[in-house]
Amino acid sequence: MANTVGLIRHGVTEWNNLGKAQGVSDIPLNEEGIKQATALANRLSREEWDIIFSSNLTRARQTAEIIRQSLVVESVFIDDRIREINCGLIEGTTEEERIARWGVNWREQNLGMEDFRMVAKRGLSFLEEKISKHTDKRILIVSHGALIGLSLQHLLPQRFKETYIDNTSLTILTHTNNDWACQLYNCTKHL
């Protein structure tokens, strides 16, 4: 039995363009983000996908809904386990503002950010549950940069020491005989 999982980061938002940490702040796609999601939807419309899951945050839900409209999929299933990392006090701030407020070592301070391991654990438990529940299905998951990246680093640590996930990028994983493999990483050829 095999599963194919497509991991998608949401389209761009105004806060992405401003360099602000979004975390769990509920920021919608901007015009560019809608165009990106539409381009990805056109790409995916030439493929077969069985089911779509999305984070509960608006930017992911909008991206998922645009994709759903170009596929033969009835609905998008929302799950808050695949929402973005909670960035605590840094949400809504730029790097410059963080340095001004907390100094250059702001990452070493306790500013209420969710632990990276816990984010990865959320992502992996969601993946494991969905592949066991939807065997032999092609599953799309619309989520966020940190959740996707941290999940990949924990799922395939030899391949992903670090990650960078572009807006509306597609990463494809396969799961066969209890083994995960990455077929495509951070692909944005549709843009």
Automatic annotation (TrEMBL):
Keyword Cell membrane annotated: no
Enzyme class, first EC level, given as a word: hydrolase
Molecular function as annotated in GO: phosphatase activity
Pfam families xrefs: His_Phos_1
Active site: 10, 84
A GO cellular component entry from the record: cytoplasm
Signal peptide per UniProt: none
Keywords associated with the record: Hydrolase
Residue stretches spanning the membrane: none
SMART domains for the chain: PGAM (SM00855)
Enzyme Commission designation: 3.1.3.-
Residues that hold substrate according to the record: 9-16, 59
PANTHER family referenced in this protein's UniProt entry, alphabetically: BROAD-SPECIFICITY PHOSPHATASE YOR283W-RELATED, HISTIDINE PHOSPHATASE FAMILY PROTEIN-RELATED
Protein name according to UniProt: Histidine phosphatase family protein
Source organism (scientific name): Paenibacillus roseopurpureus
